[in-house]
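Example record

Each entry pairs one chain with its bound ligand, tryptophanyl-5'AMP.
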Amino acid sequence: MENKKIILSGIQPSGAMTLGTYIGALRNWASLADEYDCYYMIVDMHAIVARQVPATLRKTPFEQLAQYIACGLDPEKNTLFIQSHVLAHAQLSWVLNCYTMFGELSRMTQFKDKSSRNEENINAGLFTYPVLQAADILLYNADLVPVGADQKQHVELTRDIAVRFNGIYGDVFKLPEPYIPKVGARIMDLQTPINKMSKSDIADGGCVLILDKPEDIMRSFKRAVTDSETSVRFDTENKPGISNLMQIYSVCTGKEFSTIESEFDGKGYGDFKKQVGEAVVELFRPIREESEKLLADKAYLESVFKAGAEKASYSANKTLRKVYKKIGFIEKPR
Ligand code: TYM
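Structure tokens for the complex follow.
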């Protein structure tokens, strides 16, 4: 275990998990457990940068954990935990705030995007959000961070913070690399395929959720926005809708784009959209069924959270102690 490389990633429990989250991140996690020491979080502290309904936030982490396990993350092989259960995340985050520049945070695309869409709640947490993410990653000395393309800039900032800190205090932090899938790093909204699919836009059917009913998934795909041509061809610039559907279909079936193009040569978009919908229904069916079973056993899910928090705290506290010592904090007398 000690010599394995370390993987860390997380997903916000700010809503149900989407097809985008699954393809960009979750799908790639399960296959890594044998080769790496893997830590996967439910990042509730990140979620509260936008207002959450407390009763929902009490429920969503259980649903998310059930889906993690149903997607193949074996709790015996992966450390699965809730971010707020490991105090070191908040503690290191404060320290790293003092080693992160205002200008760096102002350049984060996600901050610019989220603050422009949410003008009534541009809170300090939204601004320092990437520092908490850096703390998440650096606490575990993660080598690799499997995420979608939208998180690349945050992982790069994490490296910059680590380099700055190491430059002052010596080799404290390992420098992490983002691990981004070749196909599906940015799944687009089915209704507005120039925008990323996001759990905050579920109203118009452009966003598909892992736990959606088959008929709802089919309806979303049948209504997916395409273009005025008729050919199934990969061209993200001119055919964003079709290219997005091709990526989804490719991930579901393992088929190359060229194979998909010939498979649908001469057939209409209607046929293609239906096939993609069916492939997604079949992809999610076993996950939905298994999640439902797991959710019925809350005591088991709680035991996973407990064990995960204990294991994660052990590693995280080691790093935090080292950091406190380096910066000159006095250890609490025993
Ligand atoms: P979050 O919760 O927004 O998204 C979770 C993961 O899903 C990926 N993703 C997508 N990938 C492709 N297409 C999409 N449409 C799509 N939507 C979401 C995201 O890239 C991400 O990998 N800040 C992070 C959570 C986080 C984290 C961390 C990640 C907190 N601490 C430490 C890695 C390491 C976030 O908000 O992800």
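The longest strand covers residues 5-11.
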